[in-house]
Amino acid sequence: MNHEIRGTTLPVLLITLDQGEKVVAESGELSWLTNAIQMTTSTKMAGSKGVFGGLKRAFGGGSFFMTEYRAEGGSGTVAFATKVPGEILPVSVSGDSYRLHHHGYLCGTEDVELSVAFQQKLGAGVFGGEGFILQKVSGSGQAWVELDGEVILYDLQPGEVLRVHPGHIGMFEATVGFNITTVPGIKNKLFGGDGIFLATLTGPGKVWLQSLPLPNLAHALAPFLPAGEAAVEGGIAGGIIGGILNK
CATH top-level class for 2-212? Predict the structure, then answer.
């Protein structure tokens, strides 16, 4: 198995599989493939034993089904492209290895396992109603992760603390301690404009931060989309009216 990452702003992962080799990706990640690559879709992949495992993965923000791509009758290539400007990072998996944002898993070899590590509702205004979710990457093999925007790497020493807006967390090693806290001070909460939640990451271990969280991108594009401003204003007005009527 060989892989190549092409491109800069919108990179593409190209994986060349020899006869019998395979990789597993979440549903909807495929960009293109050559004729030798065959596809099989099932819930029994990435560490899941069946439907229940698929449901747990789906409730955690992942896909209910996973798709296996395998080379039959010779070598072949399968490609996965980023959805927004960002980077694709190859990572080696051995045991309980990484936590990553729930849109970050691109694909991995068949013994890499994907599950939910953390899930918490932080309000609809923070993550579009999805809440904050981290996926757990474990097992054994090779995986590829998609992070959005530019990627900044920190190597935290034991006891070293980094406080991060939750959306900017791309990935961190399992040795890093994780907790969700609120911004200190009532004025900061009400008027700071940066949200009221922060993630606390405590070393030792590596942390990969992403500069372009998808909710931030969606918020920046909303005024330029058809009826974007009207939808935002209508949502605010509806929320105010609904709050009054429910009292």
Answer: alpha beta
